[in-house]
Amino acid sequence: MTKNININPFNEELPSEYADRLGIYYTKQVTAKHKKDNGQFFTPIPIARLMASYCKEGDTTVKILDPGCGTAILTCTLIEHLVNTKINIEVIELVVYETDECLVPFSTRVLEYIKSWLKKRDIILNYVLNQYDFILDNYKALQKNYRSELFDFIISNPPYFKLAKDDVKTIAAKELVSGQPNIYSIFMGIAAKLLADRGELIFITPRSFASGNYFKAFRELFFNTVQIDTIHLFNSRKDTFNRDSVLQETVIIKAIKESIDPNKRVLVSSSNGIIDISEPVIKHFNSSELIDLSSREKILHLPTSDKEESILNLVSSWENFLSDFNIKISTGPVVSFRSKQFLQDNYENGTVFLAPLFWLHNVGKMILEWPKEFKDKEKYIRLENASKSILIPNKNYIFLRRFSTKDDKSRLIAAPYFCNYIKSDFIGVENKVNYIYRKNGHLNRDEMVGLCALLNSELFDTYFQIFNGNVNVSATELREMRLPPLDDIIRIGNRIILSNDYSMANVNTIINEIYELEAIMN
C-alpha cells in the first residue's frame, strides 16, 4: 500500500469523522486476511461516541492512552467529548500505539489534524505514536511495585485473536494467562495497571472474558484492580462491526481505578446493535449482584431485561453446586483424530468387542439418539486393552453438548443416558460432549431426569446466557452454576417421569410452575 495519502480533511470536519473516512478507505485497500491477522475491527462512529460519553472526570491537563489506535477514531471522539464538556482543559498528553506499518501513515494524518483542530481552541496536544508492541512495552506494569507512566483515560478497541501458549506476549503477560489467551484480555489487564487513581478505562471487546477457564487469571487480576462502573451489551452478533463482517457478542466496559465497593451501583445497558444504540434498555445493579469477588471463578453476569434480572435473583438465592450432591462433570475422553484405530462404524458380532460411541450429534434435548448415521462419525469404539483408558464405565449419566451450533436456539442441550440403554461394560464419549455422573455410585433416575430437565429448561438457558457470551459450554462454568436443593431436582424428575412426557413444552411447564415463573417467561 502506498504511504502517500491524498485524502484531506473537509472544512470544519470533526477529527472523528476524518478518522472514520480514512478507516473506510484503508479497509478497502487491504485484504480481509491482513485485517484478520492484525485483529483489526474499526469502531463505527456511533459506538465510539457512546464510549467517549462514559468519561466523567477531567482536569486542566489530562493524560490519555490508546493502546491500539488504528486511525485514532476512539482518541478523536474522546478528545471531542472532553473539549465539549470540560471547559477548563488546557493540555492533553496523548500516547498511542499502532504496529501495522500500513496503517501508521493514516494514524499520523489524523493525529496531526486533531492537533491543529485543538490549537484553534487554545488547547495544546502533545502526542507520541509508538510503532512497537503495546504488550511487550508495558507488561512489567503487571509486576508488583512497578512504577510507570499512569493515565487519566485509557480507551481502546484492542485486537482480537488467540495467542499461542509459547508466544512471546503470552509469556511476558503470564500473570493474565490461564490457558490459551485472547490478546484483547492482555490489553485490558495491562491497561488496568496503567490507570492513575480515579483513572477511567473504556474498552470494547468480545464478552467472552466474562466467564470460562481461559480468562480466569485475567478476571482475578482485572476485577481486583478496577471497579466496574458502566457496561453496554450488544445483543446482536452481526450489527456491532457489520462493515467488517464480525460475528461476535460484544460489550463495552467502563471501569475506574478506585477502591472496590460491592455496593457500587453499576449501570448496565443494552441494544441490539448500532441502529438502536441511542435508545438502550437501562438497568442498575450493585456490583456484588454482577460479580462475586469471593468466588473462585469471578464470573461476570450481564442481565439486560426484567426476565433476566428475575432469573438471576432466583438462581442467586440457591446455595448448592454439583459438588454438594457428590455429582461431577467431565469432558468426554475420546479425541477422535487420536483414536482413529479404535473407531468403527459397523457392528461385528463375536469377532470384535465393541462399545457404543456417543458424539455431540447424538445428544438432543431430553433425548439421546443412537445409533444415528452421520458423516465421518463412527458409531462404535473397539473395546481393547489399549482403548480402556479412554472409555468410561457403563452407568447412568447426563450427556451435555460442549458446543452449540448457529442453528441451535439454546446453549444448553442435554440428554439422559441410562445404563440399560445398551449391554456393554464400557461406553465411549467423544471430546465435544460433557458427561455428568456420581463418581462413587449411581445417579438415581429421578435425579438424572430432574437435573437434565433443569439444564435444558428455558430457565437455565436464560441464566447461562447472562454470563456466557460464546458457543462453548465448559465444565468449569457448570461446576460454578448454582443449583436448587436436591429435593427440588428429584421433585422435577418425578413429575416428568410420572407424566411420561419428556417434551420441552412439558419440562418448561413443570419447572415454571414449581418456581412460579409463568408470568416472567411469558
Automatic annotation (TrEMBL):
EC class name: transferase
Residues covered by the Type II methyltransferase M.TaqI-like domain: 121-238
Pfam families with a match to the protein in the record: Eco57I
Transmembrane segments: none
Keyword tRNA-binding: no
Catalytic reactions of this protein: a 2'-deoxyadenosine in DNA + S-adenosyl-L-methionine = an N(6)-methyl-2'-deoxyadenosine in DNA + S-adenosyl-L-homocysteine + H(+)
Domain of life, source organism: Bacteria
GO molecular function annotation: methyltransferase activity
One GO term (biological process): methylation
Enzyme Commission designation: 2.1.1.72
Protein's UniProt name: site-specific DNA-methyltransferase (adenine-specific)
Species whose genome carries this gene: Flavobacterium cerinum
